[in-house]
Specification:
eight-stranded parallel beta sheet, two-stranded parallel sheet
């Protein structure tokens, strides 16, 4: 499939909306993030009813009081994905694979167990930093390391199960690297880009940056934005909709609606994102259209 053919797989007036349903580490005791299979199934159903067709999913420890912790237990992954697929037949599952370091046994085991239609492929390394108002580190500086060898291992595992990689790009150098992965033969189809914007040490959530990023992607390749932040990120969401990008929101990325109020659940965030699409003359993709997008 050539890049122009990929771009024509879904009409330009249709936006594929991803719900980033729960994320990593956020404490379910203080935020309304779903953790258990039953909670994930209900939240996915609400998100799809509001316009989502893709569920981006992290797995959490299922032990009481431990829901803020990551789990790479394939049995947990299977239970979560099975519950979502039962609640929303035909939904596209996009599994996280993000883990610091070279030990990727857990993410790969979950990929092989649940066989998602898509999977996140962190396409480069990032110093994951944030400072408090005092200038002190909000957490100890962390290197989210994704060397080329790790990226290649992830891509090989995704190819083996037929999952489409979503290349997560935290800065402009990573955006440019994706084209090199393709030229090098690591990936032989038009890449799906995900511009992660708003992480303090990565690309800012600046709507004016978005048109510049599009100059550096593989021509015709599909793309979307992950906008991390508070209510100010909605200007970026609207710019992505206006420029023809696909859209993503959810409790992984932010808790605030365009009016500054806190979202009660994922469905409220997805409904607001569908309104961005509507203002751009576009509508949310159906589940069948999202599968055609792949």
């Amino acid at each position: 499939m050539t890049a122009p053919e990929a771009a024509q797989a879904i009409p330009s007036d249709v936006a594929v909306i991803t719900c980033a349903i729960n994320g990593v580490l956020t404490d379910p005791g203080t935020h309304p993030v779903p953790v258990t299979p039953e909670q994930l199934a209900r939240s996915a159903r609400g998100a799809v009813d509001a316009g989502a067709s893709v569920i981006h999913l992290h797995f959490r420890d299922q032990r009481p009081g431990q829901g803020h912790r990551v789990s790479w237990d394939p049995q947990v992954a299977e239970a979560c994905v099975t519950a979502i697929r039962k609640a929303v037949p035909g939904v596209v599952i996009n599994q996280t694979t993000g883990v610091p370091g070279r030990d990727v046994a857990g993410p790969l085991a979950c990929l092989r167990r649940v066989r998602p239609e898509m999977a996140a492929c962190n396409a480069g390394s990032l110093n994951y930093l944030k400072t408090r108002a005092s200038g002190e580190w909000a957490w100890p500086p962390l290197l989210f390391d994704n060397p080329v060898e790790k990226v290649a291992e992830m891509l090989e595992a995704m190819a083996a199960i037929g999952a489409v990689p979503e290349f997560e790009c935290f800065d402009t150098g990573i955006v440019r690297s994706v084209a090199m992965f393709c030229r090098n033969g690591m990936y032989d189809r038009p890449p799906h880009y995900n511009f992660v914007m708003g992480v303090a040490s990565g690309m800012p959530a600046d709507p004016d940056l978005l048109p510049l990023l599009l100059r550096h992607i593989v021509p015709g390749a599909p793309w979307q934005v992950t906008a991390v932040g508070r209510s100010d990120i909605w200007a970026l969401h609207q710019r992505a909709a206006d420029l023809g990008g696909h859209l993503r929101a959810g409790l992984e990325d932010g808790f605030y609606l365009p009016d500054g109020s806190r979202a009660r659940d994922n469905a409220e965030l997805i409904a607001a994102l569908a309104e961005c699409a509507a203002r751009a003359g576009r509508r949310p993709a159906t589940l069948a259209e999202a599968r055609a997008w792949l």
